[in-house]
Amino acid sequence: VKILSEEKPLSGKKVLITAGPTREAIDPVRYISNHSSGKMGYSIAKVAKRLGAEVCLISGPTCLEVPYFIDSYIRVESAKDMFEAVLEKYREYDILIMCAAVADYTPTQSSQEKIKKTQDKLVLELSKTPDILDFLGHNKQPGQIVVGFAAETQNIVDNAYEKLLKKEADVIVANDARRAMGSDENQVYLIFKDKPTVVIEGKKEEVAKELLKRVCELLEK
Ligand code: CTP
Ligand code: CA
Known about the structure:
Elements: E1 14-19, E2 24-27, E3 30-32, H1 39-50, E4 54-59, E5 72-75, H2 79-89, E6 95-98, E7 105-107, E8 126-128, H3 132-139, E9 145-152, H4 156-167, E10 171-176, H5 177-180, E11 185-192, E12 198-203, H6 204-220
Parallel strand pairs: 1-4, 1-6, 4-5, 6-9, 9-10
Antiparallel strand pairs: 2-3, 7-8, 10-11, 11-12
Helix pairs in contact: 1-6
The chain binds cytidine-5'-triphosphate and calcium ion.
Cytidine-5'-triphosphate binds near residues 98, 129, 149 and 151.
């Protein structure tokens, strides 16, 4: 993405981004997770930096290189860790972009020792994790913009709009989970409360750039 010749619309702004999956421990050697690669969130972090922002990236485990040129990078493991890291940071940021594929459930108890295969059937009890986006939507500081993602496999726009209302996000970036996860490209719908939906398609860096430009427009109001 060539941004060299352009101005830096995010200069003076602070952007907090979550990215990647989380891992929920079952025992010391096993976990529950999902197919998120982290590429979308890392692209947003890089592009936000190039557009002039001060950037903090809170990331679950990914295979991606740490973007050394951003301002702060926090590596987390579980949904609970990610929530704690966000809680510590979010107040100082202007734009909060919750791109991570946070696990919705975590083992109620994770075993201290490796679970042995002594039983024919094993039942795992899971408990809901804290919803970070929902917390931010309901606790945002004046002027803060909260951007959520929605990974859907059906009724993409309708389901995502419901998430926007429920979590009080300013924008929801909706995508087809099966198409987006792991890929270098993405097609997303930017869904606002009372503005027409915008469709963006392209490489994840291009999507990131267009998304950040649209979010910038919201900041000015
Ligand atoms: N999210 C979050 N904390 C969670 C779960 C999700 O902050 N514990 C955020 C994601 O980062 C994303 C948004 O909520 O920005 C939507 O995630 P998604 O999985 O699409 O929706 P859920 O609300 O978790 O609902 P469901 O998985 O049932 O569709
Ligand atoms: Ca979910």
